[in-house]
C-alpha cells in the first residue's frame, strides 16, 4: 500500500515536470536500493529488455551478478531451470559472494566441486514465480535444495532468512523473477579473506 | 522503459535546478560567471577539464590548508542545463600524486561522449568550502570514426555500455576484423587453452608487422598480457580498444611508436577462466602461479612466445580487491635473482614515468601493496612479473583497484566502475608504449647488461626473496609498498654451481603435474623457456652461463621452493690458475679461472667458462657444447662443428672469432661481446643471434654474423 502511494506522488511530480506525455507505464519495474546502480532507462540490460529473456541470458545483463551467472553456468543447472514452468531466482550480488567465499573457494566450487555448487545454487531458487509483493506476503519459501527459508517484510524490501535482503527486486524473466539479494544463502562456511588472492 | 527510474531522475534534476543557486552562492548551472568575479575565501579557482579516452582530467589551483577536495559532476544537455543529479564522483587526497602543487583528478566512469558540468571544492578539516565556478564540456566519444571502416569496430563491452564483458566469440570476431582491415596487424595463435580455445596475440607494427618472430624480436618489441585471471577482465577490454587505436589511428604519435617497434598484445591468456569467470584456468590452476613451472598449456604458450618474440618490456594486467589502494598499483620484478639493472629500470618506469605522468593526467599510480597489502607482491618466480624479470624483461604488474573505494564514491554503479577500470588500464598501456618509445636505449642497455651479468653466472643464488622497494619520497602516492620479503637463509645458495645435471628420467620422464594428470616433460619445458642443454653420456647438463641463469636454479635445484626436479649440482672443475696448454675432454667448467696457454676441446667435450681469462687461442672442433660468459680470450676463438649449444656472451676476444658449421639446430648466441678482429659465421644450421645485444667488433662481420 505504501508503494502505491509513493507511485502516485511520483507520477504527480512527473506531471509537474511535464515529462510523461509519450511514456508508456512500465510493466517491468524493479525496485530496491541497488536498482539505481544497474542498467536502466533504455540502456542495454534495462529491466524491460530482460522480461522475455531466458534465465541464463537475463543474468548476463544484470551487472552485479557476474559471479552468480558464472556459477549457474558452471553448475549445468540451466537446462533444468529453463524447463521449469516458473522459477524465482534469489541471486546474491558479486559483493555478497566476495563477502562469503575466498577466490580459491569459489574456484574450487565452480571447477571441481560441482555437486556442492549445485546444492549452493539450489538454495537460491524457488520452484514458482514470486514477486517482491509475494515474498513480502509469504512467511517462508522452500528452495530447490529442500530448505525452507523464512521470509518477511524489511522496510520496502523482503528479508530472506536471517541475513539476506532483496536489494533490487522484481526483474522479470521469461519464466519467472530474479531478485538480487545481498547475502549468500545456504549453509556453506564463510571463507572470505582466506588464501592468496593477490596478483 | 523503467518508469520509476526516469521519474526519480526528473525530480532530482528539477530539485537541483531549483535549489542549486540557493545552496551555492556562486550560481552553478545557468550562465558562466563573469570573468571579473572575485573568488570567495577558500574557493577553488582556475578549474580546467581536459578530455582523453574515457576520462577527463580535472585540474585546479590548490586552496591553502585544504585536507582534500571533492570533484562534482553533473550531466547537462547541449545548452548546459542539468539533466542529472549533481554527484560527487571523486575525492582528491594528498597521497594521490607525487606533486601536490598542481592537483589533478582523472574523472572516469561516465559513458564516453556525454556532456557534463564539473565543479571542485576544498574541504578544510571536514568543512566544505565553496565550489569553484563550473566548467562544461563534452567527453570524448569512443575512439574511432563511426563512418570509417576499421575505426568503427566496437567490442561487446563498448556496445553494451559496459553491461557485458566481451565474450570469447566476440573477441575472436573483433580481432579477426582488426586483422583483416589493418595492414598493421597480424593475429597469431600462440597456443590453445585446456578447453582448446585459441590463445591469440595481436602483432602490431607499421606499415606492417615484421614477418617472423625473429624479425619482430629485432625491433625490441613490448608485450601486454591482458587477462590472466578470468574474473579480472578490466585490462582485457582496454587491450581490445588499444588494438583498434593502434590499427587505425593515423596520428603522428601512433605512427611514430609503430615505426620503431612492434606491439604484442595477448588479450586473453586464460580464455577458459574468462569464459567461466573463474580466477584459475579450467583445472583450477592460478596461471599467475605457473609461469616458471609451465604445467599448463596457457602459460607454456606465453613462455614460448617470450622465447620467440623476445619482448624487452612488459605489463601484466590484473584487478585488485583492496579498496584502500590507489587507482593503479604497480610493482617491478623483485625476485633477488632478477638482475639489478632490470629491477632498477622497471622501478624507473613505474616511479619516474607512471607516477609523474599519473600526476599530470590525474591517475593515482602507486606501489602495489598499500594498506592491508602486506601479503602481496612477493618473490614467487611463478608470477609473470618475476618470470619476466628473470628473463631480463623490464616490466611491471598492473592492478586496477576493483571497487571505487573512498576516493571514487560513484562506483556503486557497476558500469561506472567497469569503465573507470578499463580506461585507467588504457591510459597505463599507452603510457607504457610512450615509456618504451622514449627510453628504449635505456631499456636495451639494462637488458644487455642483465644478460651479460646472468651469463657470467655472477653472484649468489636466491630461491625466494625480494629486493626491497624503497619508499618513494613524500608525498608518497601510496601508503605503503609491499613488505620487505627478504630471503631466509634456507633460500640462499652462496656457492652457485656451474650447471645442473639431469638424469634421463628427470629430463624425459613422464610427469603428472599438468591437466588431467599429464604434464609436459622437463625437456619440453626447458625447450619452451629456450635454455641451452648439453647431452652428455650419462644425462643432460644445463649450464648457468646463459641469459636465464636467474631462473634455471629455481626449477632444477632441490633447494628451490617450487622446482621441477632435483638436478645434480655440477661445480667448477677449475677456479684458479693453469699455466700451459689445456686440453678438455668430457665436461670442464672454468669459473674465475686464468689459463695461460691455448685451450683445445676434444670431440664430444663441453666447456663452460665464466669470469675466466684465457691467454691463448681457443679451439673447439666437434665439441658437445661451448659456453662463454663474462670472460676474456686473448687470442683467436674458433668454434666449429659443435653438435650442441654454442653461447658466447659478454666476452672480450682479442683476435678473430670464427663460428662455423655448428649443427645443434637452435641459434648460437653471440651477444654483448667485444671482438678485436674479424667476426665470421658460416654454415651454422641456424644463424647465430645477438639477442638484440650488440657486439663491438673491430673488424669485418661476415656471413651469418654480418648484422650482429
From TrEMBL, chain A:
Sequence ranges assigned to domain FAS1 in this UniProt record: 52-185
Family matches, as SUPFAM superfamilies: FAS1 domain
UniProt keyword Signal, yes or no: yes
Keyword Glycosyltransferase: no
Pfam families: Fasciclin (PF02469)
Taxonomic superkingdom: Bacteria
Cleavable signal peptide: 1-17
Protein name: Uncaracterized surface protein containing fasciclin (FAS1) repeats
UniProt source species: Asanoa ishikariensis
Upper taxonomic lineage: Bacteria, Bacillati, Actinomycetota, Actinomycetes, Micromonosporales
Automatic annotation (TrEMBL), chain B:
Keywords assigned: Carbohydrate metabolism, Glycosidase, Hydrolase, Metalloprotease, Polysaccharide degradation, Protease, Signal, Zinc
Names of the cofactor(s): Zn(2+)
GO cellular component: extracellular space
Residue runs in coiled coils: none
Residue ranges of domain Fibronectin type-III in the record: 40-142
Xref: SMART domains: Zn_pept
Record domain Peptidase M14: where: 164-401
Signal peptide feature range: 1-30
Keyword Phosphoprotein set for record: no
GO biological process: polysaccharide catabolic process; proteolysis
GO molecular function, one term: zinc ion binding
Superkingdom as given in the UniProt entry: Bacteria
Family indicated by similarity: Belongs to the peptidase M14 family.
PANTHER family, per database record: PROTEASE FAMILY M14 CARBOXYPEPTIDASE A,B, SLL0236 PROTEIN
Protein name according to UniProt: Murein tripeptide amidase MpaA
Amino acid at each position: 500500500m505504501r508503494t502505491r502511494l509513493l507511485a502516485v506522488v511520483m507520477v504527480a511530480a512527473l506531471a509537474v515536470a511535464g515529462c510523461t506525455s509519450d511514456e508508456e507505464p512500465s510493466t517491468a519495474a524493479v525496485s530496491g536500493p541497488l536498482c539505481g546502480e544497474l542498467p536502466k532507462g533504455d540502456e542495454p540490460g534495462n529491466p524491460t529488455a530482460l522480461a522475455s529473456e531466458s534465465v541464463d541470458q537475463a543474468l548476463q545483463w544484470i551487472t552485479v551478478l557476474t559471479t552468480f551467472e558464472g556459477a549457474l553456468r558452471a553448475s549445468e543447472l540451466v537446462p533444468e531451470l529453463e524447463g521449469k514452468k516458473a522459477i524465482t531466482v534469489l541471486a546474491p550480488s558479486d559483493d555478497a559472494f566476495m563477502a562469503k567465499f575466498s577466490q580459491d573457494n569459489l574456484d574450487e566450487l565452480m571447477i571441481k566441486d560441482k555437486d556442492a555448487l549445485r546444492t549452493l545454487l539450489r538454495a537460491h531458487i524457488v520452484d514458482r514465480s514470486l514477486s517482491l509483493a509475494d515474498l513480502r506476503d509469504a512467511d517462508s519459501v522452500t528452495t530447490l535444495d529442500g530448505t525452507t527459508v523464512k521470509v518477511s517484510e524489511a522496510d520496502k524490501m523482503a528479508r530472506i532468512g536471517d541475513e539476506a535482503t532483496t536489494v533490487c527486486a522484481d526483474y522479470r524473466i521469461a519464466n519467472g523473477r530474479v531478485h538480487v539479494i545481498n547475502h549468500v544463502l545456504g549453509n556453506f562456511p564463510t571463507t572470505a579473506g582466506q588464501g592468496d588472492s593477490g596478483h | 522503459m523503467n518508469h520509476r527510474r526516469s521519474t526519480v531522475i526528473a525530480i532530482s534534476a528539477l530539485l537541483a535546478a531549483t535549489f542549486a543557486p540557493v545552496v551555492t552562492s556562486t550560481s552553478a548551472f545557468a550562465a558562466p560567471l563573469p570573468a571579473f568575479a572575485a573568488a570567495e575565501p577558500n574557493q577553488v579557482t582556475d578549474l580546467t577539464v581536459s578530455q582523453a579516452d574515457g576520462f577527463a582530467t580535472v585540474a585546479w589551483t590548490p586552496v591553502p590548508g585544504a585536507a582534500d577536495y571533492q570533484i562534482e559532476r553533473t550531466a547537462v544537455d547541449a545548452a548546459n542545463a542539468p539533466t542529472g543529479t549533481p554527484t560527487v564522483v571523486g575525492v582528491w587526497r594528498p597521497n594521490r600524486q607525487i606533486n601536490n602543487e598542481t592537483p589533478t583528478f582523472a574523472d572516469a566512469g561516465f559513458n564516453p561522449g556525454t556532456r557534463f558540468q564539473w565543479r571542485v571544492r576544498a574541504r578544510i578539516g571536514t568543512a566544505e568550502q565553496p565550489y569553484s565556478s563550473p566548467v562544461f564540456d563534452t567527453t570524448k566519444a569512443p575512439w574511432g570514426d563511426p563512418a570509417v571502416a576499421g575505426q568503427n569496430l566496437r567490442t561487446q563491452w563498448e556496445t553494451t555500455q559496459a553491461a557485458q564483458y566481451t565474450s570469447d566469440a566476440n573477441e575472436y570476431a573483433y580481432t579477426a576484423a582488426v586483422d583483416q582491415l589493418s595492414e598493421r596487424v597480424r593475429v597469431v595463435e600462440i597456443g590453445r587453452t585446456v578447453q582448446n580455445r585459441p590463445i591469440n596475440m595481436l602483432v602490431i607494427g607499421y606499415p606492417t608487422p615484421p614477418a617472423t618472430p625473429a624479425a619482430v624480436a629485432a625491433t625490441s618489441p613490448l608485450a601486454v598480457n591482458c587477462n590472466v585471471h578470468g574474473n579480472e577482465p578490466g585490462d582485457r577490454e582496454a587491450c581490445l580498444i588499444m588494438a583498434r587505436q593502434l590499427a587505425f589511428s593515423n596520428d603522428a604519435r601512433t605512427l611514430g611508436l609503430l615505426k620503431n617497434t612492434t606491439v604484442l598484445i595477448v588479450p586473453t591468456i586464460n580464455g577458459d577462466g574468462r569464459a567461466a569467470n573463474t580466477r584459475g584456468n579450467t583445472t583450477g590452476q592460478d596461471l599467475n602461479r605457473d609461469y616458471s613451472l609451465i604445467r599448463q598449456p596457457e602459460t607454456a604458450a606465453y613462455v614460448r612466445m617470450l622465447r620467440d618474440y623476445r619482448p624487452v618490456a612488459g605489463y601484466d594486467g590484473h584487478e585488485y580487491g583492496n579498496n584502500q589502494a590507489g587507482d593503479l598499483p604497480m610493482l617491478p620484478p623483485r625476485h633477488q635473482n632478477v638482475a639489478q639493472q632490470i629491477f632498477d629500470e622497471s622501478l624507473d618506469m613505474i616511479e619516474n614515468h607512471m607516477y609523474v605522468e599519473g600526476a599530470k593526467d590525474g591517475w593515482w599510480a602507486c606501489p602495489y601493496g598499500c594498506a592491508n597489502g602486506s601479503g602481496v607482491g612477493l618473490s614467487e618466480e611463478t608470477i609473470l612479473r618475476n618470470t619476466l624479470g628473470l628473463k631480463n624483461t623490464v616490466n611491471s604488474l598492473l592492478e586496477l583497484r576493483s571497487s571505487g573505494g573512498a576516493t571514487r564514491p560513484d562506483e556503486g554503479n557497476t558500469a561506472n566502475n567497469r569503465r573507470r577500470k578499463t580506461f585507467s588500464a588504457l591510459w597505463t598501456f599507452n603510457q607504457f608504449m610512450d615509456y618504451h618509445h622514449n627510453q628504449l636505449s635505456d631499456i636495451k642497455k639494462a637488458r644487455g647488461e642483465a644478460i651479460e651479468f646472468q651469463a657470467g653466472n655472477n653472484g649468489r643464488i636466491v630461491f625466494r626473496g625480494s629486493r626491497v622497494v624503497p619508499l618513494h619520497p613524500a608525498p608518497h602516492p601510496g601508503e605503503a609498498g609491499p613488505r620487505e620479503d627478504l630471503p631466509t637463509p634456507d633460500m640462499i645458495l652462496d656457492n652457485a654451481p656451474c650447471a645442473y645435471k639431469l638424469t634421463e628420467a628427470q629430463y624425459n620422464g613422464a610427469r603428472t603435474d599438468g591437466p588431467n594428470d599429464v604434464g609436459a616433460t622437463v625437456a619440453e619445458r626447458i625447450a619452451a623457456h629456450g635454455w641451452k642443454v648439453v647431452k652428455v653420456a650419462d644425462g643432460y647438463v644445463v649450464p648457468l652461463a646463459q641469459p636465464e641463469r636467474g631462473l634455471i636454479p629455481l626449477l632444477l635445484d632441490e633447494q628451490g621452493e617450487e622446482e621441477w626436479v632435483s638436478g645434480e649440482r655440477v661445480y667448477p672443475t677449475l677456479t684458479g690458475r693453469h699455466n700451459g696448454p689445456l686440453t678438455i675432454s668430457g665436461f670442464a667448467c672454468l669459473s674465475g679461472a686464468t689459463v695461460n696457454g691455448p685451450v683445445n676441446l676434444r670431440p664430444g667435450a663441453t666447456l663452460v667458462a665464466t669470469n675466466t681469462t684465457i691467454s691463448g687461442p681457443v679451439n673447439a672442433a666437434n665439441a658437445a657444447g661451448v659456453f662463454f660468459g663474462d670472460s676474456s680470450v686473448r687470442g683467436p676463438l674458433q668454434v666449429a662443428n659443435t653438435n650442441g649449444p654454442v653461447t658466447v656472451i659478454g666476452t672480450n676476444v682479442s683476435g678473430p672469432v670464427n663460428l662455423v658449421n655448428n649443427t645443434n639446430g637452435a641459434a648460437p648466441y653471440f651477444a654483448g661481446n667485444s671482438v678485436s678482429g674479424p667476426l665470421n659465421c658460416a654454415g651454422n644450421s641456424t644463424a647465430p643471434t645477438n639477442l638484440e645485444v650488440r657486439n663491438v667488433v673491430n673488424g669485418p662481420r661476415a656471413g651469418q654474423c654480418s648484422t650482429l
